[in-house]
Each structure stands twice: as structure tokens, then as C-alpha cells.
Write a structure and sequence with these properties.
single chain, 313 residues, mainly alpha, MetI-like fold, disordered N terminus
């Protein structure tokens, strides 16, 4: 004889009779829950992804800025190891220890600080002028058709012509003083700022603009609350490229007719074959570039808090 089924359901099959009543030979349908435990089945645990992300972030005690230095530190370690193994010729590629000793001598004598101060002043002047001219030109060309007709073609010409090729013309116009050097840096900055900001303004979602207009937003409010905030990411990309272009223009400008500056130090080191001094100056340019990048990242964290973007895994 078959054992009778209890009201709780079948003892082993995990099924209940169709129609809610027991009958001989009746079909059984699977139930969602079983009376007893099921050790042969894996348990499904729902985890909040925000808690997982917070736990992973809390587990990493190293600041994100220091984590980004892992690549340069690895290069330095590899450089030191290869120098210790005599893979590099010390006459052409000095070891990091020798470069550090030369940097200490330059700092102790005050030569590095004096040249660096002059170079920083030139970059700040050119960056300020380039930011102002480039931003005003991009806003005028991006918001109006007449501004685009007057400005855009000229900026494209400056973009097509290498700025370094304009240095002889700048010297002929302004002489061999500070003006041509600052002007060269200004040209490098304003072209990068204009191209990226103008493109960002024109790529603002037209649906957002039409939605704002349908709610009765005035033109001035439309520009300040929709268009300009929407173009801010492109402006910051242009700022990053502008800072890089400013340092490149500084190097080239100071190698010609510059009595003082990092570029002048580079020219003198090349003339006297001071490879260690050249490596020190390269390290200074690298630190300045990393500092500029850190500044732009700081601005992005402060100004783009409203934007959700992929930040890697």
C-alpha cells in the first residue's frame, strides 16, 4: 500500500495536487517552498551593490592620487635596477641616485628655484590670456551664428598652423623680450580652449534646450543653467590639453633668446653635455605636468558633481 499524503503536501516530491485536492493518480505541480531544508541546492543571497562598493572603497586605504603614481614609481624602480646591472651607460643615462644628487645641488645653490620662478610666471601670464580669449571666443561662436562666422575659421587656421612656426613672426613683431614667449604660450592655450569649448557648446543636447524653452526659460537663464553647465566637461578637457600645450610652448620659447628660465637651463646643459642636469629638468617638467593634471581632476570633482560617469572597475 502507498503511504497517505499529509495535508502539508508530499513528503519527498515537493509537489502539491492540482486543484488543491488529493486524488489517486492525480498530477502534482511543483511548489515554491519545501517543508524541509534542501542541502543539495545553493542558497541565493541578494547583496546591495552600493554596500559592496562602499566595502571595497573602505578596504582600499591608499588614496586614489597615490594609486595613480604606481606607474611612475614602477618606471623609477626599473630604471634603478637596470642602472645597477650596468645595462645603461652612465654617461648617457645616469642612475636615479645621481640625478637626485644633481637636483639637490641645484636646489642648494638656488639656481633651480630662480629659473623655475621665471618660467612659472610666463606660463601663468600666457595661461590667463589664453583662457580669457579662448573662452570668450568659444562662447561667442558657440551661441551665435555671427560669432561662428567671424571666429571659427580664424581659430581653425591657428589650429592648422604649428604655433612654433609663428615664433619668428612674434619675434619680429614684439622683439626678443618677454612678449613673444608669453604670446606663444597664449596661442597654444587659446586654441585648445576654443576647440573643445566650442565643440562642447554645440553638442549640448537639443532636447534639453527645447524642454527648457517649453517651460518658459528666458535666453539668459537658458545659457547660464543649461548650455554652459552642459559644456563644462568639454571645457575641462580643453583645459587639460591647454596646460600640456603651455608647458610645451614654454620649453620651445625659452630655448630661443631666453636669458633665464628652465628652457635656458636645458640649452646650457645640452651645450655642456650635462646629461644629469637634463634629466633633472625632465623630472621638473614631469612633476609640473602631474601637478597640472591633479588641478584639473580637482576641478572636475568640484564642478561636475552632477554628472554620473564611468570611473573604471
Amino acid at each position: 500500500m502507498e503511504e497517505p499524503l499529509s495535508a502539508a503536501g508530499p513528503p519527498q516530491g515537493g509537489k502539491r495536487p492540482l486543484g488543491g485536492q488529493q486524488a489517486e493518480g492525480a498530477a502534482w505541480e511543483p511548489t515554491c517552498a519545501q517543508a524541509g531544508p534542501a542541502p543539495d541546492r545553493a542558497a541565493i543571497v541578494l547583496v546591495d551593490p552600493t554596500r559592496v562598493g562602499g566595502a571595497l572603497a573602505g578596504a582600499s586605504r591608499v588614496p586614489r592620487g597615490l594609486q595613480r603614481l604606481a606607474g611612475p614609481v614602477l618606471v623609477l624602480v626599473l630604471w634603478q635596477v637596470l642602472s645597477s646591472l650596468d645595462v645603461f651607460d652612465p654617461r648617457t643615462t645616469p642612475a636615479p641616485g645621481r640625478v637626485l644628487a644633481t637636483a639637490y645641488d641645484l636646489v642648494a645653490s638656488g639656481a633651480l628655484q630662480s629659473h623655475l620662478a621665471v618660467s612659472l610666471m610666463r606660463v601663468l601670464q600666457g595661461l590667463a590670456l589664453g583662457l580669457f580669449i579662448g573662452t570668450v571666443s568659444a562662447v561667442a561662436a558657440g551661441l551665435t551664428r555671427w560669432g561662428e562666422n567671424l571666429v571659427d575659421a580664424n581659430m581653425e587656421v591657428l589650429r592648422a598652423v604649428p604655433n612654433f612656426a609663428l615664433l619668428p613672426v612674434l619675434i619680429a613683431w614684439f622683439g626678443i623680450g618677454e612678449e613673444p614667449k608669453v604670446a606663444l604660450i597664449t596661442l597654444s592655450v587659446l586654441v585648445a580652449i576654443y576647440i573643445n569649448t566650442f565643440s562642447a557648446i554645440r553638442n549640448v543636447d537639443a532636447g534639453l534646450v527645447e524642454a527648457a524653452r517649453s517651460f518658459g526659460v528666458r535666453q539668459r537663464e537658458l545659457i547660464t543653467t543649461v548650455i554652459l553647465p552642459g559644456s563644462l566637461p568639454g571645457f575641462l578637457v580643453g583645459l587639460r590639453l591647454a596646460l600640456t600645450g603651455a608647458w610645451l610652448a614654454l620649453i620651445f620659447a625659452e630655448t630661443i633668446n631666453a636669458p633665464v628660465g628652465l628652457g635656458r637651463m636645458m640649452s646650457d646643459a645640452r651645450e655642456y653635455f650635462r646629461i644629469d642636469v637634463i634629466f633633472v629638468l625632465l623630472a621638473v617638467y614631469a612633476v609640473l605636468g602631474l601637478a597640472s593634471l591633479a588641478l584639473v581632476r580637482w576641478l572636475e570633482r568640484r564642478l561636475l558633481v552632477w554628472r554620473r560617469a564611468f570611473d573604471g572597475t
